[in-house]
Amino acid sequence: MSNESNETFNPELDLVLERIVEVPVELVWNAWTKPEQLIHWFTPAPWKTIDCRIDLKPGGEFYTMMESPEGTQFPNSGCFLEIVPLQKLVFTDSLLPGYRPSGNSFMTAFVTMERIGKATKYKALAKHKDPETRKQHEDMGFMDGWGAALDQLVAFTKNLPK
Questions:
Q1: pLDDT recorded at residue 3
Q2: Which InterPro entries match (predicted)?
Q3: Looking at the chain, which terminus has fewer C-beta neighbours within 10 angstroms, N or C?
């Protein structure tokens, strides 16, 4: 069940990327929820996503393994908090699968999708625990990185077999 108040933007703690992409919402949803698709676009090149596990249910696993151009691997473990098919995914690294506390807390992400004809209104909201973590994410290139990943998602989905 959706709760709009959970998506409130706080400029001191949050980062947001919003765009309308010329891809049907079903393709955006599949790109986010199918590991075999997500590994193709999730990490801005020249970085790669080399592994992904998705257990699409609240409390289910959302795991990615990113690899730098130098070959250093960065695992990211978390769990889904909310899933509204074709509309919303909420996940966090604060919790592991089964809602087990992770001991890490970088962000909680809200990815929302809204059908606009044959296009999708896409929004990625990253909530952080404090202004320092938000700044760290911004300095890591949130806007460019998440924007590049979205561009890759669009390119990937447009090249899927019809």
A1: 47
A2: ASHA1/2-like_C, START-like_dom_sf
A3: C
Can you tell me which residue has the tokens 């990615």? 64
Q: Which residues of 72-83 are buried (b: 16+ CB within 10 A; e: fewer)?
A: eeeebbbbbbee
Amino acid found at 79? C
Find the helix packing angle between 131-139 and 142-158, rounded to 10°.
60
Looking at the chain, how many residues does it have? 162
First to last CA, the chain: 32
Note if the pTM is more than 0.85.
Answer: yes
Given this model, what pLDDT does residue 4 score? 52
- Residues 108-145: b if buried by 16+ CB within 10 A, e if exposed: bbbbbbeeeeebbebbbbbbbeeeebbeebeeeebeee
Place of tokens 């087990």: 100
Ordered mean pLDDT values, 10 residues apiece, the chain (162 residues):
67 96 97 98 95 98 97 96 98 97 94 96 96 95 92 95 80
DSSP 129: S
Task: Identify the pLDDT of residue 6.
Answer: 74
